[in-house]
Amino acid sequence: MKKTPKGERTEYDRLELIREMEKTLPYKRFVHTMGVAAVAAGLAMRHGEDVRRTEVAGILHDCAKKLSAEEMIRLCEKGGIPVTTVERKNSALLHAGAGCVLASQRFGITDEEILGAIRWHTTGKPGMTTMEKIVFIAGYIEPGRKDLPGMDEIREAAFRDLDEALVMILTNTLEYLESRGSEIDPMTRDTCDYYKKELGRKT
Ligand SMILES: [Fe+2]
Predict the structure, then answer these.
(1) What b-and-e string marks burial along 8-34, b requiring 16 or more CB atoms within 10 Å of the CB?
(2) Which of 97, 105, 116, 197 could form an SS bridge with 81, CB 3.0 to 4.6 Å?
(3) Distance 65 CA to ligand 1 centre (A)
(4) pLDDT exceeds 80 at position 9
(5) How far is the CA of 122 from the centre of ligand 1 (A)?
(6) How many A from CA of 92 to the centre of ligand 1?
(7) How far, in Å, CA of 83 to CA of 93, rounded?
(8) The predicted structure's pLDDT at residue 148
């Protein structure tokens, strides 16, 4: 097993992890997962990120999706991940933090970047690593996703500039949540503002 200088494992048994996800996730969610893993690997190739580790993050990103809200809260507390009020009310948001703890405790992932990519795949966060950005974006653009507005442009942008794709996705997501009157995790707004500024700096 290869290790990074910090002693983290860098190679995981992808077949084993895929089999685990096949066993735990409902069929549709499993197919989505494999779509995310494939797109994440492709984006990693394009943007000079580690392909295997990025794929592992894609495979595991929804590993906690089937757990009950109570189980997810328990996992977050166990892993020292703070649960926000918005998350308590909207348990769909909890699976990212819970997934990060599950990936570490059940699947033995010690790679901080992989864990971060799982942790932030729903809301994103300011200052994401390339792997975190890739998994966030792959979750939105994988082939099985509905044709949301601007999808073709977002898919194209993802293979050109990750920050550009991030801003497009976050803007769409915020507009959609606002139009439905849904509660918005403040982290989603912070992330959108942060990457709009980042993009402004580049142009
Ligand atoms: Fe997810």
Answers:
(1) bebebeeeebbebbeebbeeeebebbb
(2) 97
(3) 7
(4) no
(5) 6
(6) 8
(7) 10
(8) 86
CA distance 48 to 201: 22
- Give the whole-angstrom CA distance, residue 11 versus residue 193: 35
- 103 closest CA partner among 111, 27, 177: 111
Look up the pTM and report it.
0.93
- Cα of 61 vs centre of ligand 1, distance in Å, is 6
State the Cα–Cα distance between residues 145 and 175, nearest whole angstrom.
18
Q: Which amino acid is at 76?
A: C
Q: How far is the CA of 203 from the centre of ligand 1 (A)?
A: 31
- In this predicted structure, what is the pLDDT of residue 76? 96
For residue 62, count CB atoms less than 10 angstroms from its CB and return exposed for 0-12, middle for 13-18, buried for 19 or more. buried
Taking the centre of ligand 1 as the mean of its atom positions, its distance from the CA of residue 24, in whole angstroms, is: 14
Across the chain, mean pLDDT equals 93
Distance 107 CA to ligand 1 centre (A): 17
Q: pLDDT tier at 108 (50, 70, 90 boundaries)?
A: very high
Count of Cβ atoms closer than 10 Å to residue 132 Cβ? 23
Q: What confidence tens digit (pLDDT) does each residue in 58-99 have? A: 999 999 999 999 999 999 999 999 998 878 888 888 999 999
Residues in the chain: 203
Q: How far is CA 170 from CA 1, 45, 88, 133, in A?
A: 37, 23, 22, 12
